[in-house]
Fold each of these.
Amino acid sequence: MPILLFKIFAPALSLLFQEAASGRVATAWQRAQHPDLSKFLVIGALLFIIGVAGVLTRRNIIVIFMSIELILNAANLNFIAFARYLEETGSVNAVAGQIFAVFVIVVAAAEAAIGLGIVIALYRNKETIWVDEIDILKW
Amino acid sequence: MVLSGWEAVFFWVFSIAAIFAGLLTVMARNTIHSALFLISSLVSVAALFILLQAEFIAGVQILVYVGGVMVLFLFVIMLVNVGAEERGREEIFNRPRQVTTSVIFCALLAAGLLYAINVGYEGLARRDAVPIKAGAEQRLNQERNLAPSATGSSRISTETEKVGGSLYRFGSLPFEIASVLLLVAIVGSVMLARTLKQEAAVDDVPRETSVAELAEIKDEPFVQG
């Protein structure tokens, strides 16, 4: 059980220097000088987790919306990184990842417009931006 | 897809900047500060897009997110009252137990994601070892063949050309659907944000109401509720 826990948490603790967890510091330094796909994925994962933490912990509805933007941006980073990776490994339509990122940006813009419209309407009726006070739909 | 030299340096600078700005977005007490930190995070991610040779997406990111969405956010922050938060009277996080649970959940999520990336990427790199090497060499050759820019100090990338071609060749239907979505979002947000008075002026006015009366309703000062 402790070994399993270590195996799961070691990469998380060492964050970006994945190889350093197993004592290969020289390898880690070598890889850090040549960041590849996995480093971009790790950055994307960290941004995603920061966004999730923001959504779950903050009380201010506007900051929650900003955290959602952070999450969508992390997903975009993954799309672009994989698009580049697939292009170099010779995939047929590798720019599909970039096109998907464009659509994600479009949907994020629409979502922000609608969400902030709801915030304005809510503030006009309820005079609050704290999510724990917005409970009109609770039965 | 292996960066080296200055690219690696810039990768670390911008990725660390993106993560710290993201953290500060979530932690900042003042909502305006949150928005500004989110802007710096988005710009850093745009720089990472440029390192990944997605110049078009980087430009779109800065124009749409920083120029459009974040300005919208700043307007809304200034429309709603955030004074109490700034003066430090209000708690900005949820209750301690909720925060503890969320942080534990996020730690587990981080552990799971990073473990999956470690194990998964090792397998992927082993499978694609040959194409990765060949692709890197091919890319270097391609970059040498690109047309030089007017000043001669750099070369003109054809990446945007490829994105545009592919967008209209394979993604034209989603493209049209996205434009409808944006239209719906515009109409919806206008409808959501108007006051009761404005709604009354548009929807529920009897036919016989004269144009002058309508104008009078519209000219009244902004009334909340």
Amino acid sequence: MIEVEGLIKDYGPRRAINNLTFKANPGEILGFLGPNGAGKTTTMRILSGYMPPTWGVARVAGFDVVDQSLEVRKHVGYLPETVPLYPDMTVFDYLKYMADLRHIKNAEDRVDDVLDIVHMEERADGYISNLSKGMRQRIGLAQALLHEPDVLILDEPTIGLDPAQIREVRTLIREIGKQRTVLLSTHILSEAQQICDRVLIINKGEIVVEDTPERLQAGLAGAQRVSVKVQGDGDGLEKIIKGIPGIGSISVKAEGFLEVESPPGKDIRPVIARDVIHAGFDLLELKTIDLSLEDIFIQLTRDEPEPPSTDDTEEEA
Amino acid sequence: MRNVWIIARREYKYYFISPVAYVVAFFFMLILGLFFYLNMRGAMIQAAYQAYAPDVQIVIGPMVTLLLFVMPAVTMRSIAEEMRMGTMELLLTAPVKDWELVLGKWLGAFFFMLSLLAVTLIFPLVLNFLVKPGIDQGLLVAGYLGLIMMVASMIAIGVFISSIFNNQLVVFFISLIVMLALWFVSQFASDAAGLGNQLLTYLDFPGHFNNFYQGIINLSDIVYFLSLTSFALLLGTVSIEIRRWR
């Protein structure tokens, strides 16, 4: 459904995306992950027919984005990050206008249908200027669904929403994704974990890694980490653990609280428990820490000066 | 062509819900009314001394000057506002050709101005009652045809400028400067020789309008305004295409 090969986009001397190659299959929700400025929006704009690439080939629904741009636009539903709407129009008029531009037959019925899908039928006659951010997002999504596109491109569809709205939009995307190809960009990792079948991590315009969220987590986890918590200030605890054979780096998190890296494939917890208790410490906690997708993301995009935002919306989701 | 109508219809409707359009239309009519009153008063004084009846030129004359300032205000938001609001991304990812967008924007504004010009017909109508045996209808038809031609090209220029800049105020002033330049360009014709002279003379905006004003409908004047309109619309389309490639 989406085939991208050697895609390059230059903005003057700056290269926004460099040699991107990937595929999205029919009925797949592909997550496009990356820090701000990684090239996600640029890629999506090229795929939606908004602008041509500087170099490379991109085909959407079997059509070339440069030579058959109009056909591509007919088959793509696109929700830009800014969710562009006309505040002076009513919800219904806006969707009707967009439906007319797409020459949809029985446009009014179709507008009613998409309003039903995004649960906004009661606000059909309301002015867009009076809608909340979440409602606008849903109207934007409704606009992208109007022509029943084969491919849906959603640029940061949950940004700026409250936790309840985020949940709602994610459920909606999952439902939509059952029937069509969805390319979704986000810098919220838990979102990609929850919604996407496959994830592409992009940094500085290049694909860093491509896999399912689960395999990414498992494969990149590598060395396991173990947290150790004892009562009191834990004086001498680091020395005891250092003495255990095969132990990796140790980081002190707080007084009496350490994180230890253990070799892969070996559960080091029994040894730690025995040695720590033997040394006279009261052991409060001993557990392995899974490497989150977030950690992987930070590892992979480490040299990025601005780490990805981990705002509270992510935690709430 | 269907997309052109869809865009033009939305554009036309927008003018009637936007305060800017109402303010512009209000002041246009107010100043025009004021000029009309003053001209009528002057004409009555003049008529006391000699046989004199004012004609439709007392309406069209001030209108031309007013349009020079009103047109940039009418078109300044056209494409610039779409870019500012981000809705341009929506239009450029819809299956709409770039020229359809530009032509739709132009047509919407053109219909709005036609509506405004239709309202101004009230002045010739009043004048027709006041003078005996009525106004010269030839002058009226030619004058208004000239106004329509002029407005069409001014809108095209405005839409083109609006496709270059995102800031409406910048669009307003640049449009005004371009229109003023077209207005005074013939003044410099004598400074240039050969082709330059011919070109500057041909570009003379008021010169071409003046024939309509005098009641003369020349095909060459119609061609001038139509070609100016088409050229500006073409530039607008190219400007949007360049935007895509940037």
